[in-house]
Amino acid sequence: MPLETLEFEEPIAVLLKEIEALTLLPRTDGRDREIDALGRRLESVRAEIYRSLTPWQRVQVARHPNRPGLEDFIARLFTGFVEIHGDRRFADDHTIMTGFAEYKGEPVLVVGHVKGKDTKEKIFRNFGYARPEGYRKALRAMRLAEKFHRPVIVFVDTPAAFPGIESEERGVAEAIAVNLREMMLLDTSVIVIVSGEGGSGGALGIAVGDRVLMQEFAIYSVIPPEGCASILWRDQAKKVEAAAALKLTAPDLLKAAIIDEIIPEPIGGAHTDPAAAARLVDDVLVRVLAEVSSLDSETRLGRRYDMFRSMGRIGIDFVDEGSPGSSS
Amino acid sequence: MAWFKKARTPIAPPAKAQASRVPEGLWVKCPGCSQIIYNKDLATNLNVCPKCAHHNRIGAAERLRLLFDDGAWIEHDKDLVSTDPLQFVDTKPYKARLRATMESTGVKDAVITASGTIDGIETEIAAMEYSFIGGSMGVVVGEKIARAIERAIAKRSPVVIVCCSGGARMMEGALSLMQMAKVCGALARLDRERLPYISVLTDPTTGGVTASFAMLGDLNIAEPKALIGFAGPRVIEQTIRQTLPDGFQRSEFLLEKGMIDFIVDRREMKAAIANALRFMGGSRAAPAPAAAPPT
């Protein structure tokens, strides 16, 4: 039984344990039938639970330690990945990873956050909190892709940009801001996939592109629910309410026209079947990349601008538009 | 009536500014030097302490008044309001919060955008209003600033944004976050058009505003001792479990770290901006250049 069982996955874990126990006993026809029956029950329980996840439960799934991350996707979807390091200014950030590889036989640039799986790796990856060097490395790599007309595929999975002294000293805000400006006019196809946690500016700093896709149980938020709860409710325990209020789930973001498309996940979430999750990403990515790459650069850049330019229109009342106001 | 009044969050609201600037207390204690100052002296000194030059926070309208020639401007998109797209409710509904804030501040969201001249140079200014939900950026702030930048591109005039904000507005969720990309996108076009953009950083400028347009000025100019940073000091302290050094994330610290171009006293700000705009090609509005062809 996996150690990382989320509390609402308890019924699934119980069934898994039962099946495991039965498979350890000698095989008989009756026992096989029992295992099959339990297997079917497992599927239906899983489907039942995942059909009606609350926003806070989705946050937990998005942060699941076994959730496939950038390295899984590189291994399953790309060939011949060569990592490139460093921002040529200060250091190599270990959270944001960049490199070139082939996707369906075509050269592409891959960029994304890595959180790390075990403790040692998590420390090396700074738990997914990128420093300014990471954002600058990402931009340098994307400029390289632009120069040689290679598409950029971005995977977003970070709690936030690193909130530390050195981060401030070396201008993490400036690094993110420059990326936002430059990615808007980056003259090559850019496909963004929010695959885990889309943590505010730390996520957006590499997430401006022609299409923004989001995995079914990923989240994308202006602030983590815990932070929001402690500021607005003055109580971290209100994170469940905050997660609901922030409208940070994929269906919510699709409705708000912040993302273009939701990439389905296997029943039970990407962490239950990383191979199937990668295939589902593949199906959408190959189609979307072909669509975007077929556009001439003027059209592509125009649409990219318009897409971000129109974000938020749904939240504005245009009272008395454009009339010059009073002068004082 | 109190003899003394603490000036933690002093003065401000626009529109009725002249009237409301009259304080309850005749005297205020300066948060910088703790000296007692006659309130009128403070007001005539642009809310800068005459004794220690401590810069008290001022509102957006007051900011425009001290930057535009003759204190005159044309305001744009004054009536854009948020519809509360998420139907956000925390300890009270966001709608109620908006309504109350509109009443207390006299503005409809946390920025005023306007056209006017600075030392004769036609300029678009966006000035943020901190008293409106911490100057936070939601969809209306993003839209108004993006429009101001696009207006500047159309008129080929410079842009000045006076930042004063706690960051992106939580109550509009990811839509607020996207305003960062939206405004930076507009700035990208302004940049390619070779039009000047000056970012004026005032106390405080943090979060999503710092990580977008505040840091992208052709020149980033700060007022003295303003708090400027990405993560808030409390968040950083929680992360590193140490107290932060004195002066961390203040203008002088950022200057030392190479993030801002220079620091200017509020009383010199207009002259500094006008001077910079002249360097960047701004010229006094002349009679319209003969753009229209004959016939």
Q: What do these coordinates show?
A:
The complex is a heterodimer of chains A (328) and B (295). By secondary structure, chain A is an alpha/beta fold. In chain A, 47% of the residues lie in helices and 16% in strands. Chain A has 2 domains: 7-52; 59-309, 2-enoyl-CoA Hydratase, Chain A, domain 1, CATH 3.90.226. In chain A, strands 1, 2, 3, 4, 5, 6, 7 and 8 form an 8-stranded mixed beta sheet that branches. The longest helix of chain A has 23 residues, at 29-51. Chain A is globular, with a radius of gyration of 22 Å. Helices cover 33% and strands 18% of the residues of chain B. Chain B has a 7-stranded mixed beta sheet, with helices on both faces. Chain B has a 3-stranded mixed beta sheet with strand order 1-2-3. In chain B, helix 5 (139-155) packs parallel to helix 6. The chains are: A alpha/beta (328), B alpha/beta (295). Chains A and B meet through helix 7, helix 8, helix 9, helix 10 and helix 11 of A and strand 4, strand 5, helix 5, helix 6 and helix 7 of B.
In helices, the fraction of residues of chain A equals 40-55%
Biggest interface and residues each: A-B, 64 and 74 residues
Low-confidence stretches of chain B: 16-20
Beta-strand segment tally of chain B = 11
Taking the alpha carbons of the first and last residues of chain A, their distance comes to 70 Å
The CATH first-level class of the largest domain in chain B comes to Alpha Beta
Which series of helices and strands of chain B comes N to C? EHEEHHEEHEEHEHEHEHHEH
Let me know the CATH homologous superfamily of the largest domain in chain A: 2-enoyl-CoA Hydratase, Chain A, domain 1
Count of beta strands of chain A: 9
CATH architecture of the largest domain in chain A: Alpha-Beta Complex
Report the sheet with the most strands of chain A, covering strand number, pairing sense and barrel closure: 8 strands, mixed
Regarding quaternary structure, what we see is: heterodimer
CATH topology of the largest domain in chain B: 2-enoyl-CoA Hydratase, Chain A, domain 1
- Give the CATH H-level superfamily of the largest domain in chain B: 2-enoyl-CoA Hydratase, Chain A, domain 1
In spatial order, strands of the major sheet of chain B run 4-6-7-8-9-10-11
Please give the domain count of chain B: 2
Helical region count of chain A? Answer: 14
Q: Average pLDDT value of chain B?
A: 90
Distance between termini of chain B? 70 Å
CATH fold node name of the largest domain in chain A: 2-enoyl-CoA Hydratase, Chain A, domain 1
Helicity range of chain B? 25-40%
